[in-house]
Structure formats: C-alpha cells, structure tokens
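Quick log. Single chain, no ligands specified.
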Amino acid sequence: MILWTLKGAFLYSLVSSTVEETIALGEKIAGALHRGSVIALRGGLGAGKTCLVQGIARGLGITERITSPTYTIVSEYAAENSLPFYHIDAYRLEGDDDFSNLGGEEFLYGGGITAIEWSERIEGSIPAGALTIAIEILEDGKRRITVGEKA
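-> predicted structure:
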C-alpha cells in the first residue's frame, strides 16, 4: 500500500473496527518508512496510538513488547540489522523547549525512524514532511485513522 505520493497534498482516511486492524495498518505503514522518517501521532486517551505504533514496530521486525513510554518519554528499539526505532510520548512535555532540552532533535535527525505520540504538544519540533496520523474514536467504538503529511 502506498500511503503518500504528493508532498503536502496526500490525505488518506480509513475506519478501523478492531485493534488487530489498527496493528495491521501500522505494519503496512512500516513498509513505506525509511531512515529519517518521523510519524506524528494525534488522538485522545485510548484512541489507539500505541496500537498503531505496535504495528509499525512489528512491520520493522521488532519483536520486543511495545508499550506507551509515558513515564520514560522515549523508548528505543531495534530489530537485528535494522534502523533504530524511537517511540516518544510527548504527553508529559510542556512544549517544544522541553523536547529540545531532552535532546529531541537527536531522535528526529539521528538516522532512525521516530514515532511521536501526542505530537501536537511539540508541534513546532515536528519537521516538514513528517507523516501525520490522527486517530479519532467514533461513537460505535471504531477508529477513524487519517494519514497525511505535514507541510
């Protein structure tokens, strides 16, 4: 599945009915990622951001258990012969200055792949061209997942 083709112009939306579908979408997204890719995730508590990241990690060949790094802020993973995968949870950050003081630019420009939950909290730090993914909980419990690119 090709998720984006036109810089700044792509928008893709789907509805996920189950956790398994969300994880499967993450696996497909992983196939389109490359060194330096940044994934900016948005959505409320329990929306499925971490489930999507679990799928991305699985698609990258990572077998470790992926959990939300809310208290550690950053978790680093890697599969054998793979790029580093940085999973960041910006929920507890107070903004771009906090992210910078944490050394956040090293994760964004360090040659790995970076997924950031609660990315709206550090909006100014998210690079142009980042893959943005918004997850919305629908009334029936399904999730609307919208994928685009930050201009």
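The first helix runs from residue 19 to 30.
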